[in-house]
């Protein structure tokens, strides 16, 4: 199972100006460094929470529908990178590598659940791919929205605090354990596994 980002976020949850104000930086000499820190901080928050902050298009490739911890009979599959906005297509790949698009009339997309999920419509089960490996492709859109205003304030604050950690200490501050202030900000957004 692999998750690819087909279309990355168009913007970051925190602007360069917001980060510079947070850092109290008034010059433009390190704008590229600060921009890179924003991207790295957003990626770290997303990795820690399992969430997509800004809208992006993703593709998950599966061998089988029965993904441990995400598959619930009778026919429900939770998708990664919540919040789910839409499923744009599900493709099944046959043994001869031919592709068949699974009709959207045959499944239900639940964007209200967290994480979002798909379910088989009716009593039939998920269709079987013809290939043993990488036989299922699910294309979907995930994220809180297209702009920074759509991202929860606590997650934007976590990004800013990580930028603040990384700016003065450029020797890998973003790869160290999360500061307690960031842990507390992202705690409500972490997925709990039982």
UniProtKB/TrEMBL annotation:
It comes from the Bacteria. This is Head-tail connector protein. It comes from Hyphobacterium marinum.
